[in-house]
Amino acid sequence: MASSTSLYEVLGIPTSANGNEIKAAYRRLARTCHPDVVSMNQKEMSANLFMKINAAYSTLSDPNKRADYDRNLYRWNSPFCSSATPTAAASVSGFSGYNSGRNWETDQCW
Amino acid sequence: MSSLFLIGDSDKKSSKSDGSNIQNSTFSKLLNFAPPFCISFHQFEVMAEPAYTVASDSETTGEEKSSSAFPEIAIGIDIGTSQCSVAIWNGSQVELLRNTRNQKLMRSYVTFKDEIPSGGVSYQLSHEHEMLSGAAIFNMKRLIGRVDTDPVVHASKSLPFLVQTLDIGVRPFIAALVNNIWRSTTPEEVLAIYLVELRVMAESRLKRPIRNVVLSIPVSFSRFQLTRIERACAMAGLHVLRLMPEPTAVALLYAQQQQQLIHDNMGSGSEKIALIFNMGAGYCDVAVTATAGGVSHIKALTGSTIGGEDFLQNMMRHLLPDYDNLFSSRGVNEIKSMGLLRVATQDAIHKLSFEESVQIDVDLGNGSRICRKVNREEFEEVNQKIFEKCESLVIQCLLDAKVQADDLTDVMVVGGCSYIPKLRNLVKSICKRELYKGMNPFEAAVSGTALEGAVASGISDPFGNLDLLTIQATPLGIGIRANGNSFVPIIPRNTTMPARKELVFTTVRDNQTEVLIVVYEGEALKAEENHLLGYFKITGLPPAPKGVPEINVCMDIDASNVLRVLAGVVLPGSQQPVVPVMEVRMPTVDDGHGWCAEALHRAYGSNLDLVTVQKK
């Protein structure tokens, strides 16, 4: 699931990436993943993906939020806490199992 | 049963309501009496008539992209309070379409003088005063989707046609004077008549039917107002591909221009931050965008219902302090005098953009005559408050975007008011920049909508001129009433779209079995000062002490800007909802239901209230 992927992985950049590289990665992903650029039948999936990309971007492009996130990332990656993962801004919402469409499966997400 | 297979109310899908209703009832009967047949019937129906499967009652936007092999390029329309224009991507660049009188910018009005109403696209006014005789309706963009308690509607009462209010939160009554009869109409109807003219004009220029459009809209428009714009488009036989906040359309044009500079090896590929200030006759909007590689990322948007119309009204009252008394009776002669003053004042304001002072000499025909000099300073003083508001919008937008004036690469002032020296100066001084010169201030917004029209129609350009993308932000916060009478935003404004956010609420009373979710859009702290989008109850909560049930309210704006509100209840220690989750497409309120919130409050008081829960 998404929660096991780091925000850096979401944007496809190294943890050492600078501000410009983060922006460039965000725009590059937007050009391929934004719902406006994908075909009709992929809109829902791409909306979910783009929200994830955007959440990663909004954390990593803000120096303070990124510092917080990096601290947590380091802590969770240390051998003592290997099972947990950082969630930060990209945390998966309670409705995430709900596939954002009009598909009458609403009650399955709880 | 009936709600599942409802075909869409006749209001919104009037063109096919007759046939489908008949089929609908047949369908229901079959389902009721012969269940085994229903599956095959359904399949048959889908194959025979795909248009029959309308997804939802409240659906006003259908398919996004044309599925045909030769995509039809959507046209871009800028419906201004004062002027309208139409543009299209002609295969190599944006082209504004001209009417038979060779105009690119057409006055926004519809006159009901003759049997068939006619608008400013086709009709030639014999004189400016003809528009002000009472027979013409204009400023529809200021009136559409507003209730009669709205201050903007009240300000419109000084227009030379009939705007009547009952001040109870219903749609205002508007009417045109035709042969001494007040003929009633609605802003949607007026706009639709106008849009039909634009469509006919575009079809005759392009020699093909026009269906898909991208429209620019003010930032401050509520989602309810957007449904009224869509309704007017549907009445005119147009399908809305996208409604674009005006400054974001300008931002897209800017993004394209920056891309072209790179292609011409004249620009750098680095990110550019631009501020767009757009003020027309009815609305003032500001946006901050970060642009690189053809992607326009909207950082912040803000807007207000102030514009040239307010400059004009302030000036008219300044020139004729007794204005409101004189024209309160609205007889034919008063309307005529009102029109004469309006034209003279408008002229003077236009001239004051280029001259230090102007001479006004107008005989109002009722014994009073205004003959005096007006200078620019006077104009600026009379409109001091409007200029202050403009300033605060620019400052707010920079703040929201977390951008300093020094970070800006370019600053644009566009729209009908863009030549007013004071406005240019105030934007320049806040942004510490000279203004961008690369775009025509009157054509920028419509050009942007034409670009979006081409992009959204799936058109590509061999030279990469359409490799464009706008990452939009929500112009207004969306939330619910909770913590007493407060507005609690769930999706704050300037959230990147598509968006999904949720908040947890809980009950305020022991054994509270029902909660009322009232959804608002806006920025005001008090719930009822925002735009009501809809409401619904969650019932059947199991008895529990107050503060125990977790009521999770989730809001989802999808890629087509459709808002859905989901609400579910869980008890601590359980992951399963105790009652089925509610899913509601908003807005659900219908025309003129400004009194709904008040009625809800009267009926339920605080019995079904909610409070926010701090997330652990």
UniProtKB/TrEMBL annotation, chain A:
InterPro entries named among the record's database cross-references: Diphthamide-biosynth_chaperone, DnaJ_domain, DnaJ_domain_CS, J_dom_sf
Cited SMART domains: DnaJ
Domain of life of the source: Eukaryota
Domain J, residue spans: 6-73
Gene3D superfamilies for the chain: DnaJ domain
Pfam families according to UniProt: DnaJ
Name of this chain's protein: J domain-containing protein
Species of the source: Hibiscus sabdariffa (roselle)
From TrEMBL, chain B:
InterPro entries, per the entry: ATPase_NBD (IPR043129), HSP70_peptide-bd_sf (IPR029047), Hsp_70_fam (IPR013126)
Transmembrane residue ranges: none
Chain residue ranges for the region called Disordered: 1-21
Keywords per UniProt: ATP-binding, Nucleotide-binding
Domain of life: Eukaryota
Protein family according to the UniProt entry: Belongs to the heat shock protein 70 family.
PANTHER family the record matches: HEAT SHOCK PROTEIN 70KDA
Protein name per its UniProtKB record: Heat shock 70 kDa protein 8
Organism, as annotated: Hibiscus sabdariffa (roselle)
